[in-house]
Design goal:
The structure holds two protein chains of two kinds. By secondary structure, chain A is an all-alpha fold. Chain A is built from 13 helices and two strands, in the order αααββαααααααααα. The longest helix of chain A is centred in the last third of the chain and has 38 residues, at 224-261. In chain B, strands 1-2 form a two-stranded antiparallel sheet. The chains are: A mainly alpha, B mainly alpha.
Chain lengths: 326, 354
């Protein structure tokens, strides 16, 4: 099973093809964001949506704002375009970390077995008992309380590393308070998002562990870590990476929910969930201001849908029981 | 069988201990001052009073001492009164709820329970039925449509879906309003003419034989129930479909067909009962899904339940409330999962042997 084989199968599957097209669209949107939605000259941060006045009442689509403005006159079109960058950044960085954590826990548990396996899997189980969104909300509020004091020690460093990877923020600088709330949300999702990967990695390594080449490597006296990284990992990792890519959609969804509740991105930041949170104040008159839900909502839906369409097809391709059937 | 159940029950204390440690680890990130809310309802503003509280409740003691005190409570030397103690049901003081966390839970649980019960029951039936339909018509039009619908339902954010429903059915058509009851009805059920047995409005209405109240409660439940179910519906449909596809490939199905059974009998007698076995396991996961959805759904539809309270407390950084609620919901989930596992072992004899 190589990358080329999987890709060919993906292109042939109409559902996956739609997903790939959508993803391509979002990538174009994110890469050329300054072309689609030019940053106003006096803007301090391109990720803060430009405002056209301060009136609270949303304005429906018109000549100046092709998708209208939401409460506080934030331009919806600008927010959607730049929000695609936020979505990719958040999704990719979270996935990177959860995948690494999952692979580490899963491979150590599977390779060493015995009580190490037992302990690690019990811990995984405990983490899995929590409802994902609930814990993300919980940990975010704890972290925001802690960071709010500004004396968080080791926690500040973890936020800085994340800030470096997500925003290209220098490690020496102080973290921008606007980005800090986003980072706390990301940390929470990472802390409670690694378990599936750990379980799948463990399962896969347990399977390849008993193949002849692994036993052969052990017989010639290869060291534990060498067997793990040179012989087992490369053969067990591919399905794990596929699952990881499927997770991006669900992480973005969770982050959007945090923003919607007021815990993720701050007011006015180019983030889809944050943009929709304004709609909470306009529920009785939503029919009149439908644009404040529909456009940003479509952006999230299509983004997550794209990943899920590709992921669904990938699972069918990779599931050995499905191979050979139509 | 009994062995298996005993083994499952014995894991529960381990899980609960692990969860409580994790929650306490998060609590310990707070300052002693913030943690005082675990024990006292009102922090005096006088100079030096805070230090007194920190000392009295040992809020800067070693972490394991504090963990133990958090679990079993703190005994006052002078009055002999015990405060705190998760095991005694004391989860601390909620700043946002202006009462103890336990009282908040007691007050808000009925609304959440009503929403969850109404969501879970139709959800399971519908999803399983559609999943079977999709599998039986594998790769045909019905299957493709249901599959696409499931992926879409899985991808749509709960809050977008809920807001879209409100947009159409409340703001535009004014059919299904948010909240739990209309204002007039709400006043009526508080009056002496209406006895609140369970605080679940629909059930109480039936017990009081007040069908107008029942109708009003249902009218308010339709949208939140649909919103809450859609993600779990998509998930269950997918699981049922793939499990059914698996079963249909088994040899005993071929045998059943070969001996001349009509296809409908093959499906209903031989395939479905076996295909449903794995579906029961994910019942537990669906429960978790409902818990996630409750926070968003209650917030959007202005239902004063546990989920919307959690969201409020989190935004106000009332960490003691948030962690108390999380602990409480995890405990419910553990018990729920146990029930699912036991059911599973009753249905599937293979499980008991390992």
């Amino acid at each position: 099973m190589t990358f080329g084989y999987v890709f060919k199968k993906l292109i042939k599957n109409p559902i996956a093809f739609i997903g790939l097209l959508l993803l391509l669209g979002f990538i174009i949107m994110a890469v050329w964001a300054p072309v689609f939605a030019p940053v106003p000259e006096n803007a301090r941060d391109p990720y803060m949506i430009p405002r056209d006045g301060f009136s609270a009442v949303p304005v429906p689509p018109n000549e100046d704002h092709i998708l209208g403005t939401t409460e506080g006159q934030y331009d919806i079109f600008y927010g959607i375009i730049w929000g695609s960058r936020t979505a990719f950044r958040i999704g990719v960085v979270i996935t990177l970390f959860t995948t690494l954590m999952g692979i580490m826990v899963g491979s150590v548990a599977a390779y060493y077995g015995g009580w190490i396996d037992e302990v690690l899997m019990r811990i995984t189980e405990i983490f899995q008992t929590f409802p994902f969104l609930l814990t993300a909300i919980t940990l975010t509020s704890v972290l925001q309380a802690v960071y709010g004091r500004g004396e968080a020690g080791a926690l500040i460093y973890s936020a800085k590393i994340l800030a470096f990877l997500t925003f290209g923020h220098s490690l020496a600088e102080k973290i921008n308070p606007i980005q800090l709330t986003i980072l706390t949300g990301m940390i929470s999702i990472i802390m409670f998002g690694w378990m599936t990967i750990a379980r799948v990695t463990r399962g896969n390594i347990l399977t390849v562990k008993n193949y002849e080449y692994a036993i052969a490597a052990e017989t010639i006296g290869a060291k534990n870590l060498r067997i793990l990284f040179r012989h087992l990992m490369p053969n067990a990792i591919f399905p794990v990476l596929v699952i990881a890519s499927m997770n991006i959609g669900s992480y973005v969804l969770t982050f959007a929910a945090l923003s919607f509740l007021g815990l993720g991105a701050q007011r006015g930041y180019a983030d889809w969930g944050q943009m929709i949170s304004f709609a909470r104040n306009w529920i009785p008159s939503l029919a009149e201001y439908s644009h404040i839900v529909i456009y940003p909502g479509m952006a999230i839906l299509l983004f997550v849908l794209a990943w899920n369409l590709v992921g669904d097809a990938l699972r069918d391709i990779l599931d050995p029981r499905m191979r050979g059937t139509k | 069988m009994t062995n298996y159940i005993i083994r499952r029950v014995m894991i529960i204390p381990i899980l609960m201990a692990g969860i409580s440690m994790l929650i306490f680890a998060m609590l310990s990130l707070l300052t002693p001052y913030e943690r005082a809310a675990l024990y006292v309802t009102d922090i005096p503003k006088r100079q030096g009073a805070i230090e007194g509280i920190i000392e009295k409740y040992g809020l800067d003691d070693p972490i394991y001492v504090q963990y133990w005190r958090w679990m079993v409570g703190q005994k006052d030397e002078d009055t002999g009164e015990v405060t705190g103690g998760v095991l005694r049901g004391d989860l601390g003081w909620s700043k946002v709820g202006k009462s103890t966390v336990a009282e908040v839970i007691a007050r808000r649980l009925p609304a959440t329970a009503e929403l969850a019960i109404w969501s879970a029951i139709p959800l399971i039936g519908l999803a399983v039925w559609m999943g079977i339909k999709a599998a039986v018509n594998h790769d045909k039009f019905v299957d493709q449509i249901l599959r696409l619908a499931a992926i879409a339902g899985w991808s749509i954010p709960t809050f977008v879906f809920g807001l879209l429903l409100l947009l159409k059915f409340y703001s535009d058509l004014d059919l299904f309003p948010p909240g739990r009851l209309s204002i007039g009805m709400n006043e009526f059920i508080q009056s002496d003419a209406f006895i609140q047995y369970t605080k679940l409005h629909t059930l109480d209405a039936l017990l009081n034989l007040r069908f107008d109240v029942f109708k009003d409660a249902i009218r308010h439940l339709v949208l939140p129930v649909v919103t809450l179910s859609v993600v779990s519906w998509a998930f269950l449909l997918r699981v049922t479909r793939s499990s059914m596809l698996d079963t249909l490939r088994q040899d005993y199905i071929t045998t059943a067909r070969a001996k001349g059974l009509p296809e409908s009998k093959v499906i209903s007698r031989h395939a479905v009962p076996n295909a449903l076995i794995p579906v029961i396991t994910v019942g537990g996961l669906t429960l978790i899904g409902l818990f996630n959805g409750v926070v968003i759904t209650e917030t959007i539809f202005n239902i004063k339940g546990i989920g919307s309270f959690l969201a409020q407390a989190a935004v106000a950084l009332d960490v003691v409330s948030v962690l108390g609620l999380t602990l409480f919901s995890s405990m419910i989930l553990i018990v729920g999962n146990l029930v699912v596992d036991v059911l599973y072992s009753i249905v599937d004899p293979r499980i008991r042997l390992d």
